[in-house]
Amino acid sequence: MAHWLQILVLGLLLGGVYAMMASGLTLLFGVMRVVNLAHAAFILIASYMTYALFEGLTLDPMISLFVTMPLMFGLGVGLYLLLFPRLEESPRYVEMTVLLTFGLALIVEGLLTFTFTGTFRSVRPEYASTSIMIGDLFVPTSQLYASLISFALLILLWVFLRFTKTGTAIRATMQNRAAAQIVGVNVRRISALSFGLGMSLAGAAGSLLSFMFPFFPARHWQWIALLLALIVLGGMGSIKGAVIGALLLAVASAFVTDLVGPTWSPITFYLTLFLILMVRPQGLFGAKVRL
User: Fold this and answer.
1) 173, 14 Cβ separation under 8 angstroms
2) What is the mean pLDDT of each run of 10 residues along the chain (291 residues)?
3) If we measure between CA atoms, which residue out of 197, 154, 199 comes closest to residue 174?
4) Is the pTM of this model over 0.85?
5) Do residues 105 and 42 lie in contact, with contact meaning Cβ atoms separated by under 8 Å?
6) C-alpha angle 77/83/86, rounded to 5°?
7) Residues 172-182: b if buried by 16+ CB within 10 A, e if exposed
8) For the chain, how far is it from start to end, CA to CA, in angstroms?
9) 133: helix, coil or strand?
10) I want to staple 180 with a disulfide (CB 3.0 to 4.6 A). Which of 2, 48, 172, 291 is the partner?
11) What is the CATH number of domain 2-279?
12) Helix (H, G, I), strand (E, B) or coil at 82
């Protein structure tokens, strides 16, 4: 029994970080209908920023959040204003944004490879190799800290969306973009803020992942595949669905790793993506599309 409880705890801790990674991606889809294939590449940018700050200034990765989040927010707003408004009137807007973000992912990968080479990197603060014993349970300190910070940021995101005027405008835009514009919401401004907010969450995720996993410039292709499985399971555009989907799949992946082996762990995500698209394309909490 203790063995299964140990696996459950490890899966939930990892799921908290996955939830924050996926929340930024599903927020962009909910507001702008953008499947941002470059989201994981931007997470990598934050990981490398955290690595550079740690190596150059010995700045703790958890403190680096206060650097990576605002910088990634500014980058997100700038990229949106530069690239996306000119696509808004296109009858193939969604397809064009997929191609655009795919190109951005390739550009980011190339720049990171040129700057840092393809060598595996990682940030190794003291707590990255320690653990806490709670009874018979083994809790890695790095995963515990990362998960707690992730859930704290997700709670702040919920409070912002639920209790602020800008958050209400974002939720209105997610529910019905045209109706929100009719009642006076500046949809372009809200889209820019949402893109920046999603990128800010990517910045936080990159800082936390930097001391949990080794990374290299092409790692984003593995991460984006996992993230797409999470948000499709939860429902595209549903932040609640992204969180629940992340926790469910992380726990399932942990049990598969224990029972079959780590090589089979990614199949959990890919098989779930395939099955949910076949059985319930709108996901667990997504709205069913009516023709």
Assistant:
1) no
2) 87 92 88 87 96 94 95 95 85 88 96 93 90 86 94 94 92 85 88 93 94 93 89 86 91 90 84 86 69 39
3) 197
4) yes
5) no
6) 120
7) bbbeebeebee
8) 48
9) strand
10) 172
11) 1.10.3470
12) helix
Quote the tokens at residue 47.
């990981």
According to DSSP, residue 265 is labeled H
Total residue length of the chain: 291
Q: Quick count: other Cβ atoms within 10 Å of Cβ 25? A: 28
**Tokens describing residue 141:** 């300190």
Task: Note whether 214 and 206 are within 8 A (CB).
Answer: no
Q: Taking the CB of residue 212, how many other CB atoms lie within 10 A of it? A: 21
d(CA 134, CA 2): 12
